[in-house]
Design goal:
- This protein is α/β, with parallel strands linked by helices and 288 residues long.
- It folds into two domains: 118 residues, Rossmann fold, CATH 3.40.50.1000; 95 residues, HAD superfamily/HAD-like (Rossmann fold), CATH 3.40.50.
- The chain is built from ten helices and 15 strands.
- The protein has a six-stranded parallel sheet. A five-stranded parallel sheet has the order 7-6-8-9-12, with helices on both faces.
- The protein is elongated.
Length: 288
Amino acid sequence: MSAERVPVKWVIFDLDGTLYRGKTAIPGAAASVNHLRQHVSCRFLSNNGERQAQDLEERLRGLGFRIEAGDVASSADLVLEYVGEHHPSSRVLALTSEHLAHALEARGCTLVEDESAELIVVGVDRRLSRPRLTPALRAALNGATIIGTNEDPTFPGECGMKPAAGAFVGIFRGMGFEPHRLCGKPSEWAVREALKRWEIDDPTACLFVGDNLRTDIAAAVVVGARSALVRSGVSNEAELTESEAKPTLVIDSVADLSPDCLEELAEVPLPAAPHVRARPIRQEAQCG
């Protein structure tokens, strides 16, 4: 019996390295996404833990993407959602962007810089130093809950790779502390929370598009969705060979993604269940 045909109804795009690098759009990406929006629903899920959705929406519009309010979710948004639900009014030591720190304060948290913190939020902290890290260590030793924006080790900027939130989370792992919650891809909680925001109740009807095997493609696998890896960002051919999370499709860039390609993907079987080692992609799936 043939596998059930599952059409792609939603395309979930990553941002950094997939649609743009720094302040520059990937060539052809805006035109491709805007064209796809005439055929399927498009949403945007970013592991950016420094900025909330509204800022990212404005950035995308400035680069020529047609974006409506509510289309974007970031790991910063998911941090605020999680903290608001589980740790309201907490004393927070925010090793994050100033933007996210101020957003936590606006949600009712009290920002502190000492070991009295009940909650430590870890992301990209451009001001991080040993004096800032020491009270965080002592707060963790006192039992503070640690929340990470995400665990991306690097991200692609206009001038090359830069350390991302995972590098900062790694400092805590190096000191012996595992985060209680990670609010970015590939956390199943984070992915499902984002889909819930958009009222997507069937992840198998989604195509996740991204440049990172460990986050974007793994995020698709944990919810049983198809995925497309673009070569415009983080992951390279060597990582593709070694990765357990295998994309359904490999393309050079988002500019190569078309409505016809989505139609072809409807015939491709859904990925294996998350606990099963995914099979290698058919070398290589291409859009005709």
